[in-house]
Automatic annotation (TrEMBL):
GO terms for molecular function: metal ion binding; oxidoreductase activity. Residues 195-323 form the Fe2OG dioxygenase domain. InterPro entries: DIOX_N, IPNS-like_FE2OG_OXY, IPNS-like_sf, Iron_ascorbate_oxido_reductase, Oxoglu/Fe-dep_dioxygenase_dom. Keywords: Iron, Metal-binding, Oxidoreductase. It holds the Pfam family DIOX_N. Belongs to the iron/ascorbate-dependent oxidoreductase family. The keyword Nucleus does not apply. It comes from the Eukaryota. GO terms for biological process: small molecule biosynthetic process. It comes from Aspergillus aculeatus (strain ATCC 16872 / CBS 172.66 / WB 5094). This is Fe2OG dioxygenase domain-containing protein.
Length: 369
């Protein structure tokens, strides 16, 4: 692993090279969190170590059934024609309240801690994302946008079950983190009593692989925009649960280079977001990560004469602290950790609320140039 310094979230690191050597991430057997005292103690040590290094970990034996994690409903949605998907469009707005619905190819754009409007627009032109997204929040949120049951049957019922299962997994992890810090076990759960997170269903369309150094989205002009499908960034919230397919492309920055987070069947990838990094005073790392098109050497027989990179489907559940809660240092985290939290770039004068931080990040992602 590279030597990760306090500026691990520096936007300049987004230009780092990628390595073919996968990140040596820990796989946590979640059943151990419910085992004997010795088993739980060892599981907590593994979790703490993983979040202090990469900020990423694999979860095995997490209890979510395969019919909830196989991404079939995601593929069904993105296979619909454009007119149908756009029956529930995400409004042309950068307001947090409008962060729900379908965002077609080219609408959203990720950057890392770039907030100046002119700089955001320049970054969008130079390095666009290659994805389409469906964003859905708490099933009880009236702002959600749902296709009619007659058009997309079964999705709303599936989503409610999926949302509840993700919340259950995340709550178990939050309680484990409290145990690590030796604080009241429901401290972090109380801060997320409103279940204020959301789920992103992501489709990265086929890409044409031109060479080892130039990959373009299908339909792009010659030359393209480089190999990234999703620009390098840190996540905004507490914990993110990622359900990726076999295609791969997710990479995490280790302090020197980006390393593949290799797909492992049956596991969930979990990573720390900005809020939890700030709450832990830099103990746990909100890691810079990106999604790229697989390189020639990793494709093998899966490409069409080395030219076609498959569609990629993933789902990301993002937990977030309740809107009015100040993002402040947790008990047990008074001594600063290894990393300076990325939120510190904005909260030097005063702590900020969850709502303020999310508003700032979402406004940059959906800036209307």
């Amino acid at each position: 692993m590279g030597s990760i310094g306090s500026s691990h979230h520096d936007p300049q690191l987004a230009a780092s090279a990628s390595s073919n050597e996968a990140a040596d991430m820990i796989t946590l057997d979640c059943s151990k969190l419910h085992g004997s005292a010795a088993e739980r103690g060892e599981a907590l040590r593994q979790l703490d170590h993983a979040l202090q290094t990469y900020g990423f970990i694999y979860l095995a034996n997490h209890g979510m059934p395969a019919e909830l994690t196989n991404r079939l409903h995601s593929k069904r949605f993105f296979a619909l024609d454009a007119a149908t998907k756009n029956l529930i469009p995400r409004p042309a707005s950068d307001a947090l309240e409008d962060h729900l619905g379908y965002a077609e190819y080219g609408v959203g754009h990720i950057s890392q801690l770039v907030f100046d409007e002119a700089a955001v627009e320049a970054h969008r032109r130079a390095s666009p994302d290659h994805k389409e997204t469906l964003e859905v929040g708490n099933p009880a949120d009236p702002k959600n946008r749902w296709l009619p049951e007659s058009v997309f049957p079964g999705f709303r019922a599936f989503y409610t079950r999926f949302w509840d299962a993700c919340n259950e997994v995340e709550a178990a992890l939050r309680r484990a983190l409290c145990d690590i810090l030796a604080i009241e076990p429901d401290t972090l759960c109380r801060m997320q009593s409103q279940r204020f997170g959301h789920i992103s269903f992501l489709h990265y369309p086929q890409m044409v692989l031109q060479s080892a150094s130039a990959t373009t989205a299908a339909g792009d002009s010659a030359g393209g925009q480089g190999p990234r499908r999703l620009n390098a960034h840190t996540d905004y919230g507490g914990l993110t649960l990622v359900f990726q397919d076999h295609v791969g492309g997710l990479e995490v920055h280790d302090g020197a280079v980006f390393r593949p987070v290799a797909p492992k069947p049956g596991t969930i990838v979990v990573n720390v977001g900005d809020m939890l990094e700030r709450q832990s005073n830099g103990r746990w790392k909100s890691a810079l990560h990106q999604v790229v098109g697989p390189r020639e050497e990793t494709l093998g027989a899966r490409s069409d004469a080395g030219k076609l990179v498959f569609d990629r489907y993933s789902i990301a559940y993002t937990g977030a602290v309740d809107p009015e809660v100040m993002i402040e240092t947790l008990p047990g985290c008074d001594v600063p950790g290894t990393w300076r939290p990325s939120m510190a770039d904005w909260d030097q004068e005063k702590p900020v609320t969850s709502y303020e931080w999310l508003t700032k990040r979402v406004a940059a992602e959906y800036h209307q140039g």
